[in-house]
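To the team - FE2/S2 (inorganic) cluster complex, inputs and output below.
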Amino acid sequence: MTFSPELEARFEKFLDKYPAGRKRSAMIPMLIYAQDEIGSITDELIEEVAKRVGVTPLQVNEALTYYSMLHRKPMGKYHVQICTNISCLLVGGEELWDRACHKLGIGHKQVTADGRVSLEEVECIGACSWAPAIQVNYDFYHDVTMEQLEKLIDGLAAGKRPEEITEVAKVNS
Ligand code: FES
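Output:
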């Protein structure tokens, strides 16, 4: 399997960090960066990473079942993760989730027909003090109101980048 020179350099750096017998520690970061490049965790990628870190494909598959940020099928250009764990649940996280599903007409780990937006209901994303919290790709949005969520979802669905949706960008600052 071939990757970009940039990704190959990253892989090399990760594998250099760990001594022989501990190369498996590079597995998750390698999978995350590879997913960013190719869009999802394919069977071919699993085989390749397993070979490079010295584990079996089954062991890579086992890790995949634990890490929800790793996806076996491609997500949308903007992957919106909405936390409905306890701190967020208590301040409207579930309502945000329901509204996002309703507006986009998709559910958990589904993608809009144009491939622009996908949704995922997630466990705690480590932002409990600023609940309800959501994440779009690698950016966090804190203290999200229903109005802000609607603007974000409408904007993304219309093809805007998150930073172009000014009302929501304030939330992230
Ligand atoms: S419970 Fe939602 S960020 Fe922790």
